[in-house]
Amino acid sequence: MNNDTPSTRRQLPDAPLLAAAAGRKASRRPVWFMRQAGRSLPEYRKIRAGIGMLDSCFDPALVAEITMQPVRRHDVDAAILFSDIVVPLKAAGIDLDIVAGTGPVVANPVRSAADVAALPTLHSEQVEPVAKAVTLLTEELGQTALIGFAGAPFTLASYLVEGGPSRNHEKTKALMRSDSATWHALLDTLADTTITFLQAQIDAGIDALQLFDSWAGALSLADYREFVLPHSTKVFDAVSAAGVPKIHFGVGTGELLGAMGEAGADVVGVDWRIPLDDAVRRVGPGKALQGNLDPAVLFAGWDAVESEVRRIAGEADRAVAAGATGHVFNLGHGVLPDTDPDVLTRVVELVHSL
Domain segments of the chain: what residues? Predict the structure, then answer.
């Protein structure tokens, strides 16, 4: 593992996202979109035609091209590495696939201590294609920041235990409650996997990282604190020495924002359900906020979109006045597949004008 230090990394003194994340004054309000590199872009659908999702994620040149597409089209302030949260599991040797219309499907779900003990260890060379894509991108992005990412241990565990996406996470919660020792062993293993994956991206040159805990919103605050927070904290602690800004995001996590803020991120992502000037009170001062336009609003016509963007910017300004160190404009979740890309471009222009 290369203990990369800030002094040896790509220096982007004018990158608005990095300034906002670090509590510095940005030259303009930074904006990027989760899932900006993907299905809403016709150029993405064209280049991905006939290529499976996981195959795409292990092709460095293809990853770099897909990651660049929204930067060229929208003038966003950050590229988000094109990948998937199950990539490190696949790279380690777990038998899974991403099934169109369903999502990740795991051949042999993990539901016992023996299953956890049998999980393979991820080694950095197994995600070398991802690291190569990062290297290609840092050479092409200029002064635009590159965000790497990984799935948080809980969200990875939910896929492994359920065997695929789940609405209620009943098998996951059952394991958590019935065999806490096995549960914590599973999340500790997955934290190590996540750390290896993120460190490979850091060593290759990412400028920031985001930890996605997509399904943590299914949990109560008490369960989150007991069964999840220690493992997310372990991830953030392990990668903090690199000095890159760290973002933490989950969906439906309004009641968890304070605890998520404690895990060690510099920026806490907020979904569309919670106003930013309320979120700052939940997160507490000293961290930046990211969010939080409802992705569905992008279908409502420009007048509605503009009104919501301006409202969120006003909430963000009040949040900063109340103790948030900065604001990164984003959606409250990912870009939906049928979104008009031109609307996203107009949103970026509007945010930059505010």
Answer: 20-353
84 is catalytic: yes
pTM above 0.85, yes or no: yes
Query: Would you tell me how many other CB atoms lie within 10 Å of the CB of residue 220?
Result: 12
Structure-token match 């235990």, residue found? 161
By DSSP bridging, strand 145-151 and strand 327-331 are unpaired
Catalytic residue among 9, 10, 59, 84: 84
Cβ–Cβ contacts within 10 Å for residue 119, how many? 19
Q: What is the DSSP string of 60-92?
A: HHHHHHHHHHHHHHH--SEEE----TTHHHHHH
Q: Is 167 labeled as ligand-binding?
A: no
**Any catalytic annotation for residue 44?**
no
Please tell me which residue in 35, 73, 111, 282 is annotated as part of the active site.
Answer: 35
Give per-residue pLDDT as tens, 5-29.
444 578 898 899 999 999 999 999 9
Task: Let me know if 9 is a catalytic residue.
Answer: no
Distance (Å, whole) CA 159 – CA 166: 8
CB 295 within 8 A of CB 273: no
Report d(CA 168, CA 129) in Å as an integer.
Answer: 34
Query: What CA–CA distance (Å, rounded) separates 349 from 354?
Result: 9
Evaluated on CA atoms 142, 21, 249, 319, the torsion sign reads: negative
CA distances to 86, 162, 165, 263, 308 from 173, in Å:
20, 10, 14, 21, 36
Topology classification of domain 20-353: TIM Barrel (3.20.20)
- Distances from the Cα of 306 to the Cαs of 17, 277, 298, 301, 342, in angstroms? 22, 19, 9, 9, 13
Q: Which of 48, 73, 111, 282 is catalytic?
A: 48
Nearest to 97 by CA among 89, 105, 109, 87: 105
Buried b (16+ CB within 10 A) or exposed e, 237-261: ebbeebebbbbbbbbbbbebbebbb
Averaged in consecutive runs of 10 residues, what is the pLDDT profile of the chain (354 residues)?
52 92 94 94 95 95 97 97 96 92 91 97 97 96 95 97 92 97 98 98 97 95 98 98 96 96 97 96 95 97 98 97 97 96 98 96
Cα separation, 354 vs 352, whole angstroms: 6
Question: Is 264 labelled as part of a ligand binding site?
Answer: no
